[in-house]
Structure prediction request, 486 residues.
Amino acid sequence: MNEKNDKNDKNKNLCRLIIEAENAQKKNMDTFYRLQFHLMPPVGWMNDPNGLCQFDDEYHIFFQYSPLHVHGGMKAWGHYVTKDFVTYNYCGAPFLPDESFDTDGVFSGSAYVDKNGMHIFYTGNVELPGDYDYTTAGRLADTVLIESKDGYNFSEKEVVIPTSSYPETYSCHIRDPKVWKENAYYYMVLGGRTREDQGRILVYRSDDLRYWSLLKELKTRTPFAYMWECPDLYKLESHYVLSFSPQGIDREEYRYQNIYHAGYFVTDTNPITNDFSYESDSFREWDMGFDFYAPQSFLDNQGRRIMIGWVGVPYAQYQYAEVAENWQHCLTIPRCLRIGKAQGEERTIVYQYPIEEVNQLRTNQLKVENYRIDCDDDGMDILVEELEGPFSITLFDEISFSYENDTLMLSLSDEIGYGRDCRKCKIKHVKNLRILLDVSLLEIFVNDGEYVFTSRFYKKEHGTHIQFDCKDAKIYAYIMKRIEIS
Ligand code: FRU
Prediction:
């Protein structure tokens, strides 16, 4: 009885503080770095997308939300809903750390939808008081279920896998359940770190979404990172994609340039029903920019596999200037995934491209004269087609995106980069680009989404100035309107 009262008091108190913080921020929405067509936290900090799903005709986009701490802190889930990716409703923060099993954070998780409604799974983070390292001891990470008949009203939380039942060979770092159904069973993948500091994925199976038994482990043949976060596993066309965010890979010149990474393995056999180990070297990063991590995907009613990532990286060495405006980070544009071959190679990869609905945000088409764009707007969708050979694109005189000697490179000046310098990759041929520019965010899709560079940047004045040094290429530019959020 007392525990229930404590929980209700904590919940009420947090609700009040969050509503106060969000209302106070509403008076301060027209700030310089706020984006026009990407989702941001209403106030405070945002990280991973969570619980992505389509339920009836609405898309639900939950996210890791720390409304009271702009640098991250207590993690709750925030909730956006949209039918068309143009008009959104913000539906508040439905899951707060108010139970003994999630008191230090309602961590990441997913949503599984069927005829009975929405089934949400997440990790309840608990850091026990005491002298612990919170890796080998002192942390609980129960897997918790919440259900909903309508996507707006939610059941009580229910622990379905207690920490005590995770394998003893694992450290305390096990989290981020992703659930789906395949044939007669439900499956769940959880990211983990073994006691030997090896990243792994645990696969559980259930026939009722409540009782889960451990089925197998997914791993690499040779050691690859000490922790794998945010796993996702799905069939894409005739292949199987295992996506996760590994921590602890050494930096290389053309790969793994950020502190932590996000990427995938693609196989032509199902890792659930076949036994094999992945080849570390075949891991491919989702994004080559400075700011991308913890993506999650879902299948919509049209059969599209849609992925959204966090535009941010944990413990990034560079700055996010919007902190001065009392918010931090955002989500990528939803990206549709498809299987393809890498340019000029036999390798099977996943292509990512902005969801078609984004085109509805295009308004006026700009005339691009003398390979230059100069205008007062800050949101733009730019297509560069029929590229041949080396090129260079300069934005605001401070950012360069260039291609020469098989190297594609994004470089930011000290002034605009806030600690971001240069990111690059090796690529044999660049045919086209799509550049989504949104005030302080760039998403550059290369070769119809073979590569993507996602990066924040911080210019000092409004307006867009771009110089294209790319002989004979065709350039189309559209001014973007804002998404509406109510
Ligand atoms: C990834 C992550 C997840 C965790 C969440 C906490 O960014 O560390 O593993 O559930 O963030 O906010």
The longest helix spans residues 2-26. Residues 47-48, 64, 75, 107-108, 123, 175-176, 229-230, 293-294, 314 surround beta-D-fructofuranose (CB under 6 Å). The first strand starts at residue 44 and ends at 55.
